[in-house]
Amino acid sequence: MTESMVFEHDKVQIRVHDGVFELFDQANVTKSYRTPLSWVRVRAQARKRGMYMLHFSYAVYPDEPIYARLMGGVVTYATVEIPMADEPLYRAFFNNLADLSGRPIG
């Protein structure tokens, strides 16, 4: 995959280039998340007070959805808290990534 994509919203930046996924969160500048796109797994968890927590981890199976609602526990390597109103923006970006990587959305 040679196509580059950049998603920037509020204090979050996500970059994909040459099959590498990178997440940067200005709220947590000491920790980033970088992995092959084929390994990315994001789970969205509804929180109180109109917020969502996005949990970034690694896919166990190659056909695992790249983005889905959190249905149970998850090992997390990075998290980003976003307003519930912003979740559709993130979901749309991950829909595009799913199309590029040939992975489903949950």
Please sum up the structure shown.
The chain has one helix spanning 87-101; strands at 5-9, 12-17, 20-25, 33-36, 40-46, 51-58, 67-69, 78-83. The chain is mainly beta.
Structure commentary:
This protein is mainly β. Helices cover 14% and strands 42% of the residues. The protein contains one helix and eight strands. It has one helix at residues 87-101; strands at residues 5-9, 12-17, 20-25, 33-36, 40-46, 51-58, 67-69, 78-83. The protein has a four-stranded antiparallel beta sheet with strand order 1-2-3-4, with no helix packed on it. It has a four-stranded mixed beta sheet with strand order 7-5-6-8, with helices on one face. A hairpin with a 2-residue loop joins β2 and β3 (20-25). The model has no long low-confidence stretch (mean pLDDT 91).
